[in-house]
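Reviewer 2 asked us to include a model.

Predict the structure of this chain.
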Amino acid sequence: MLEITCEEPIDCIILLADLQQGKIIRMLGAGLKSGTNRIPLDDLQSLAAGNYQLEIKTAAADSVFRTKLFKQSAEGPTISLN
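Predicted model (structure tokens):
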């Protein structure tokens, strides 16, 4: 579940990209209301361990929010510090 808080209503595009493969793996449009919005992101357990990017853009494709995410392997949860 993705929780987004907005100061004003906005139509947006939510993107989840696999950084290693360089491709978008999820893309959905959402009409967000003022306040807290909860957006379901289903079947994330099927994603391979690795680095991902979550980005929220306006309907005009202007980036509003971007963050990197890391999914660890269920078999060997290790943390790498660089």
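The radius of gyration is 14 Å. The mean pLDDT is 89. We have added this to the supplementary material.
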